[in-house]
TrEMBL record:
Membrane topology: Single-pass type I membrane protein
Organism: Salvia splendens
Keyword Transport tagged: no
Name the record gives this protein: Protein brassinosteroid insensitive 1
PANTHER family in the cross-refs: LRR RECEPTOR-LIKE KINASE (PTHR48063), LRR RECEPTOR-LIKE SERINE_THREONINE-PROTEIN KINASE FLS2 (PTHR48063:SF84)
Length: 452
């Protein structure tokens, strides 16, 4: 015990000595922090609230690190806008402003973040071109700043060391042609819910071999998706949904072996059928293609896509039947959306064997026959099983009358024996099974003729 106390005392002395040996933040950086705090939240007495060395005592969101043997501190992070009690950054005022020239005194600044800081007064996107070409900035983040307007044209090109560029929920618009391919170290590019438009340059992704997250969703991008996306082989997530991309989905998506999440939904990708290349993406767990006019049949590729947890194929103009193999192989699926297509035939009973599925949407197709699911399956999904809009679907009376927490709407009770009005033309009826029915019909017709 005495030895432990001696060791603790020695550690405390050494720690105190090290702290005493550390130089304080230089006055130029200290003053620059105060000025930025004043611009983000004018009226708050920052200097009196935090009068000491800001590397020793500063508001949450202002962080320092020490460099070189002289233990010289420098500001490395500036984050503004209250996020939560776990991240209580300095709150922004409705009159927040930012002059990038205030960042010049920070030679080691790595992260700059603004959360809900520019929400009322229209504020042009800051021009970071005033910073040195050698700027150390690695993370530039603007989240939920709807009053931030203007373009990025000529404003961020100097930030060559960027690893994360996040701009989401702003009024920033215009194209991205002059800068998107210039950040070879970029690992995360999120530009969702802005007003960006125009085409993505052909070679935009050729040098982005470190890119892991690409999110351009909810903008006005148009034209073809560049084939150069196949060079971004480190990608884990791709979200291009809710844009105006058109043409063909690039076949070299097969190069993206690490992608787990792919969302191309609600674009204008044309009538080239379901992209078979998806079956060559071994780590794919979620894929969403809804709202594109791809057309064609659902291919039988699910043996190669066993890891899928969510798949959205709504409103795609799909025809033909639902492959039984979807129910056989998609054992990890929690969500399957096949609604608002032109699918025909019976519902494969194998879908009812998917133990993890919690949301199955088949509504507004041309499906027919008996609903093949058990009472347990119906109860498990409840309102998350959607079958309405299939006029020739029916349910057994025993299931209809069972106490199942499911609203089947206008789904009718099956006749006994049930014969679909499409039976004569449906591929699931073989000639041997339809012959007795045809013979019966012809016999009745013959009797009618004879009696006349």
């Amino acid at each position: 015990m005495a030895q432990w106390r001696l060791s603790l005392t020695i550690f405390t002395i050494l720690a105190a000595a090290a702290a005493a040996a550390q130089s304080p933040l230089n006055p130029e950086e200290q003053e620059a922090v105060y000025r930025i705090l004043d611009s983000v939240s004018p009226g708050t007495p920052w200097r009196s609230l935090f009068p000491d060395d800001l590397c020793s005592s500063a508001p949450h969101g202002v962080a320092c690190d020490y460099f070189s043997s002289a233990a010289t501190p420098h500001v490395t992070e500036l984050s503004f806008g209250y996020v939560s009690d776990f991240s209580p950054n300095p709150a922004c005022s409705p009159n927040s402003t930012l002059n990038p020239s205030l960042l010049s005194p920070f030679p080691r600044l790595r992260k700059l973040m603004f959360y809900k800081c520019f929400t009322q007064s229209k504020t042009p996107f800051p021009n970071f071109s005033s910073l040195s070409q050698a700027s150390s900035l690695e993370e530039l983040i603007f989240i939920e700043n709807p009053a931030l307007i203007g373009t990025l044209h000529g404003r961020i090109g100097n930030l060559k060391r960027l690893r994360r560029l996040i701009l989401t929920g702003t009024g920033v618009s215009g194209g991205v042609t002059d800068w998107i391919g210039k950040f070879a170290d970029l690992e995360k590019l999120t530009l969702s819910r802005n007003g960006f438009s125009g085409e993505i340059p052909i070679n935009a992704f050729r040098n982005m071999t470190k890119l892991k997250i690409l999110d351009l969703s909810n903008n006005e991008f148009e034209g073809s998706l560049p084939e150069s996306i196949g060079f971004a082989t480190s990608l884990l997530k791709v979200d291009l949904s809710h844009n105006k991309f058109s043409g063909k989905i690039p076949e070299n998506l097969t190069c993206l072996k690490n992608v787990q999440f792919l969302d191309l939904s609600y674009n204008n990708f044309g009538k080239f059928g379901f992209p078979l290349s998806l079956a060559e993406m071994p780590n794919l767990k979620e894929v969403y293609l809804s709202g594109n006019s791809l057309g064609g049949e659902i291919p039988d590729i699910w043996d190669n896509m066993r890891g899928i947890m969510g798949i959205g194929l709504s409103s795609m103009g799909l025809v033909g039947s639902i492959p039984r193999s979807m129910g056989v192989h998609l054992r990890n699926a929690c969500y399957i959306g096949l609604d608002n297509n032109m699918l025909q035939g019976v519902v494969p009973h194998e879908l009812g064997d998917l133990e993890l599925v919690r949301d199955l949407n088949l509504e507004n197709n041309n499906l027919s026959g008996r609903i093949p699911f058990s009472a347990d399956f119906l109860s498990k999904l409840g309102g998350k099983l959607k079958l309405e809009g299939n006029l020739d679907l029916c349910i057994d009376e025993t299931l209809k009358s069972a106490k199942v927490s499911l609203d089947l709407g206008h789904i009718k009770v099956c006749r006994k024996p049930y014969v679909s009005r499409n039976a004569l033309f449906h591929e699931s009826f073989s000639p041997s099974s339809t012959f007795p029915f045809l013979a019966l019909v012809l016999g009745v017709l013959a009797l009618i003729v004879v009696s006349m």
